[in-house]
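Hey, resending since the last one bounced:
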Amino acid sequence: MGNENEYGADQIQILEGLEAVRKRPGMYIGSTSARGLHHLVYEIVDNAVDEALAGYCKNISVTINPDNSITVEDDGRGIPVGLNHKAGKSALEVVYTVLHAGGKFGGGGYKVSGGLHGVGASVVNALSTHLSVEVYRDGKVYYQSYKIGKPDEEVRVIDDCDREKHGTKVTFLPDATIFEETVYDYNTLKQRLRETAFLTKGLRIVLNDARGETMRSHEFHYAGGIKEFVTYLNRSTEALYPDVIYCEGKKDNVYVEVAMQHNDSYNDATYSFVNNIITPEGGTHLAGFRNALTKTFNNYARANKILKDSEAQLSGEDIREGLTAIISVKIEEPQFEGQTKQKLGNSEARGAVDSVVSEQLTYFLEQNPAVAKSICEKSLLAQRAREAARKARDLTRRKTALEGMALPGKLADCSDKDPKNCEIFIVEGDSAGGSAKIARSRATQAILPLRGKILNVEKARLDRIYGNAEIKAMITAFGTGIHEDFDISKLRYDKIIIMTDADVDGAHIATLMLTFLYRFMPDLIKEGHVYLATPPLFKIEKNKNVWYAYDEAELNKILTEIGRDGNNKIQRYKGLGEMDAEQLWETTMDPEKRILKKVLIDEEKTSEIDVTFKTLMGDKVEPRREFIEENAKYVQNLDI
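The structure tokens again:
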């Protein structure tokens, strides 16, 4: 026993080569969940994109093979296969077996690159059961294969090819013992590859899925680059003016590209990228853009008497109402802040973006006075709405201070005052609200019934949102405030649970609620406080025994177990109101038995989430119809 926990020199593990990656995969690809699995594809694709950024690669194809392995092929220069004298083996083998090896260090191979750490290829190799690579160079096809990161053989020539042919083809199968999930999601890859194509002007990326009976394919190729990205993001709204504003330039070794266009919505959808990698938390490049935008529009509005001398300056938020913008910078040595590497820290990026946008936007506004005027007028309306909303907010605050009763009357609050123990159910309709109030555990569960459908915030300005009784009740109950007043430390409940009927109307109400939370309190979702309750679809009775089924598959399983005969009584629940308090507690509210679905935001998919909300909740019918037609065949249990 005595020796077991000894911590001496021999207890320090030296992890050889790629063993370190297998021991701590999360350090290299973020996680071993579905997100990490998809990250493997991005690592290999990013290597090909680096070739495109360097001007050598025009086409990339990504194929999900029937066995769920992935093949990525590009027409770049092909990974060098000659002897790397330092390592004493082929450069190809070095790239796939040595960490921090690649053409991204020392400035010679690539000026800028998305694969920031030079670990991409070797990490994918270490986390794959098998991987093979073919390189087309100088009229020859070079080949090497690996198992769990170790080469099966030396690099060898397996064929001749056309001397004009060049590029790299990689096939890998993720290791099922490492990843919690090993099935690739076509839509996740599609969204990321589409984004990559938008950010790399002229690059063609094809995604194929060979797992079904028929091949599924998408091709992405945008000659207009990020200008087309803005058009794509705005397709579910009406643009305020026809042309996308585009600024491009280089300063202090930072290459800056910005595209933007206002639409008739009320939300700011600005996305920033560094070397094609999204920066969900922004950083210096975003700060430079916002500064340039606010300064340039205020200067223009004052100079052209749209904004009188006596009027307050337009705030950045006023100018960004209804704006869709992409900021893309390419930088040789990006530095990131924070643990998650989601925020750019390079100070030169701020000045570069500010300078390029200020100068080119000033020219654009002078040359397009009609467009400039329409943006300024929209900003002024936003400013007035914000002022009206502020007055409404102050009035509410004053009232509550005077009356000392901040909480909405219809809220049945819980008695425990520690938010960590408390949860609030947002319930549609008074009858379900009544059952929920009886069913709940009074100490820790609060109930807020809402009447009918709440306001669609996708189509409303701030003043209308503050004037809506149902939304006001939610804001007051949660305690955090919204928008710039938002403070998560004031949250009164650890879990916010949306509980609606299991039908199309219930789904619509849940979507309206999620739209409101996503637009005005996104941190509640990001920090994991928002859930959807899952009421059962069926109640099965037989010989005084009762079972509940949450979907058709579970119903069939129960019927198979208890026998399908005339004694079975099956009730299909249309809504929460059909359950008595006891049933509602047992199936949907009891923490021991219920099924809660946590609502999460994948930071890497924010542009696609925005598009989905705009498409589903906006005014345009055509994009909504297309979205439903494209996705309907992948939906199960449509009426849940």
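The radius of gyration is 28 Å.

Sorry for the duplicate.
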